[in-house]
Amino acid sequence: MEEMKRAEGAGSRETIGITSTVPIEVVYASGRRVLDLNNVFIDRPDSNSLVEQAERRGFPEASCAWIKGIYSAVRLAGLRTVIAVVQGDCSNTHALMETLETEGVETIPFMYPYDGDRRMLAMQIDKLAGILGARPSDVEDARRRLDAVRRKVAVIDRFTWREGTVTGFENHYFQISCSDMKGDPGAFEAEVEDFLSRLAARKPLGKPIRLAYIGIPPIVGGIYEFIEANGGHVVFNELQRQFSLPFECDEIVDCYLRYTYPYHINRRLADIEAEIERRKVDGVIHYVQSFCFRQIEDIIVRRRLDLPILTLEGNRPGKLDLRTKMRIEAFLDMLRYIRQGD
To answer: Which range of residues forms the domain containing residue 47?
Structure first.
């Protein structure tokens, strides 16, 4: 609901929408606010209606629902400027940009170099800063300010897998919110601090099946709650954690070089393997989105990871369907059987 309220009040040049994680330090250094359009879309209780709105305006039914939701979120928020990640995210973003441009929305392209070339990434960040009028010193000041918030979110992550007092969904929520700091880093930091202050009174979840959730955040609701209701606990949210930039780095370029999502999948898998070992994970849930090229990467994930893997595919927003519930239950039963045999 908070994302919805922010979106409905964001219709000015003071707020810039983003289609995926970008160096938000540059935007904040320019004196503007950031709005992650993915969060605006999926946070709405009527999120499926945003998909339908895009389809009524001509978007193909057999195309990614996230792209359609983002398109409608831009219109809902009345945004005039959007930063679109045109390399390192979704290829459909190209057509999304072109469509928005015909409707009077200014689009600013941002590209992550596939090979992780530091010089090329630095050029992209400098170019963005030049377009928005952000000074390098202000960008670094913003990085230090946002890193202070990210370090507190990293504490929530540790309480998830080490103490077992934070649910998988809470872990997901705070880490994914780092993509735009909810448009107000100060207010978001206060929310994080309030959450941390209440953790001492919590009891651990017990000894549930420990799961890693990898892949993009789910478009369907209720996955985390259903997992925990059936004796599981997501102790690692892969991409959500990446969105929170949980790295120690001295310059903004280095932070976004260590961010694994836009680059070769081997970077992601190296991070996944290290965290799976550190967090003592029993099994992996790999979420893939319908009509997304990253579905193909499930082949690579299965060849690389030496753990039981359940691949779930989502298409449109909605509740967890019965078939998926049965597959999750069966997966957890299998992991319990394996654990008992160890």
So the answer is: 2-134
